[in-house]
Amino acid sequence: MNSITQVAGSTHDFQLVRHLETAGSQFAIGRAMAEEARERLGWAPQPADPTVNRARMTWFERNWPQHLARLDGVADAFGVDPDDDSLTLDGLSGLPMACSALWVPPSAAPDGHGRIGRNYDFFTITMSELMGAPPREGELPIAARPYVITTRPDEGLASVVITMSGLDGCMDGVNEAGLSVALLIADATTAAPPEDTSPQVGVDSVQLPRFLLDTCENVAQAKQALLGAKQYDHGMPLHYIVADADGNAFVWESERIFEVGDAPLCVTNHLLHSHPDPMALPEDTDDTLESYGRLRSLYERSKGATMSGDDIRQALEAVSPTPDKAWRTTWSTVFDTHDRTLSTRFYLGDEAGYSGELLFSAAR
Fold first, then answer.
1. Core-most of 24, 102, 244, 302, by most CB within 10 Å?
2. Residues ≥6 apart with Cβ < 8 Å to 79
3. Do 213 and 242 touch, CB atoms closer than 8 A?
4. E strand or H helix at 294
5. Which residues, including other chains, have CB under 8 Å from residue 51's CB and lie 6 or more apart?
6. What pLDDT does 93 receive?
7. Are residues 335 and 342 in contact, defined by beta-carbon separation less than 8 angstroms?
8. What end-to-end distance do the CA atoms of the chain give, in Å?
9. What is the structure's pLDDT at 92?
C-alpha cells in the first residue's frame, strides 16, 4: 500500500508538505521512495567510487539490512543492477541549522507520557544562496518541500519521520516501539556547508536517525548501535537527542553519550559536554545563533516543572527565531513516546503563519 497526500501548505506558501505512506516489504518501500524522489525531486542514482561503494554495501548488510533491502527497491525503480558498485543508490541529505529540543520525562508530565519537543530552524534561502551564489531560475528554498514519511514494513519496525528533502534519511521521527530521535547542529560557531558530500562507509548525519528507528526499540539498544556504528558527518558535526517509551533519554555527540537521568534534557546548538551546567552558560555572540540563550530559556521553563504537550509547545514558541532573523522554525514537533506519535506544524510564511497541528502515528 502506497499513498501520497498533500497535508500542509501550497505552491503559494513557503512550504508545501506531502505525506508519503508506504507498506510492504523493505524492497517495496525502497521502490516507492525512489519513485517519489524521481518524480518530485528529480533524483537519480549517482556515480560512485566502486571500492568505497562495495564497502558501504557490505557495512549495510552487516549492520543495517533494512536499508540495504530498500536500496534493492531503488535499483529496481531505476532499472539498474543493485550490485553495480559504480552507482550510489542513496545519499540524499539536508542540512540542519539553529534547532532547539527539550525532553520531558514521564515523571515530569501530568499524564505520565514522555515527550520530546523540537524546533527545526533553518534558512529560508536556496542552496545556491547558501553556497554564496545567486539562485538558479525556478530554484526553491532548501526547506520548501519537506515530507512526512510513514513506513510500515512487513518485517521490522514501523516509523513516522520528517525530512527536509531526502527521502532515505530524516531529521526526526518516532517508531512503533516509542523510540524517538531528533538531530541538531552540534556547534553553531563552526557550522558550514560541507564541501565534499561523497558517500562513505557507515551512516551519514541524516541517515543516522533512520538507522536508529529501523534497528532499535529503546535507549539501551540505541546506545549500543551508536557505539558500534561507523559514522561520518562531512565536516559538519551534529548531535542527536534520543528517548524511549520507558522514560530514558540521552544526547549523542562527538561519539559520546550525555545524559541527565530522570530529568528534563535541553539541547540547542553547542556541545553539552563542553557546557554541562545550564546555569553556567556563557553569553551568546553573533556566531552562536542564540544557542546558550535558547537552552537557558528551555531549562528555566522545565526545571522542577510539570509540563504537558501544550507547555512544551509554549516553551518551543518562546525560543523560535524572531522575524528579523534570516532563518525560521520551518517545523515544530512534539513527539509522544508513549503514544508513538508526532504532532507537528509547518511554516507557511510570515504572513500565513503556521499550518494547523497535524498528528501522525507510528503505531500499527
1. 102
2. none
3. no
4. helix 291-302
5. 85
6. 56
7. yes
8. 14
9. 58
- What does the pLDDT read at residue 270? 97
**And the C-alpha cell for 303?**
526545571
* Among 10, 340, 18, 346, residue whose Cα is nearest residue 160: 340
Domain residue ranges of the chain, discontinuous segments joined by +: 100-121+164-351
Which grid coordinates belong to 240?
542527536
Put the strands of the sheet holding 238-243 in their side by side order.
2-9, 16-24, 147-153, 159-163, 172-175, 180-185, 238-243, 249-253, 256-258
Residue with cell 552562536: 288
pLDDT for residue 209: 98
Predicted pLDDT at 340: 98
Residues of the chain with pLDDT under 70: 92-97
pLDDT at 127: 85
C-alpha dist (Å) from residue 252 to 40, 59, 158, 321? 33, 21, 23, 25
Q: What length is written for the chain?
A: 364
- Annotate 142-170 with b (16+ C-beta within 10 A) or e (fewer): bbbbbbbbbbbbeebbbbbbbbbbbbbbb
CB 86 within 8 A of CB 53: yes
pTM: 0.96
What is the rounded CA–CA span in Å between residue 171 and residue 310? Answer: 22
How far is 213 from 211, CA to CA, in rounded Å? 6
Query: What type of residue sits at position 15?
Result: Q
Instruction: Provide the pairing of β-strand 172-175 with 2-9.
Output: unpaired
Task: Give me the amino acid identity at 60.
Answer: F
Cell of 249: 533519554
In sequence order, what E strands does 193-272 have? 238-243, 249-253, 256-258, 265-267
Of the candidates 169, 168, 220, which has an alpha carbon nearest to the alpha carbon of residue 30?
Answer: 168
Distance CA 210, CA 212 (A): 5
Cβ atoms of 126 and 135 closer than 8 Å: yes
Q: Which amino acid is at 188?
A: A
Q: How much is the pLDDT for 172?
A: 97
* Maximum Cα–Cα distance across the chain: 57
φ/ψ of residue 169, rounded to 5? -130, -170
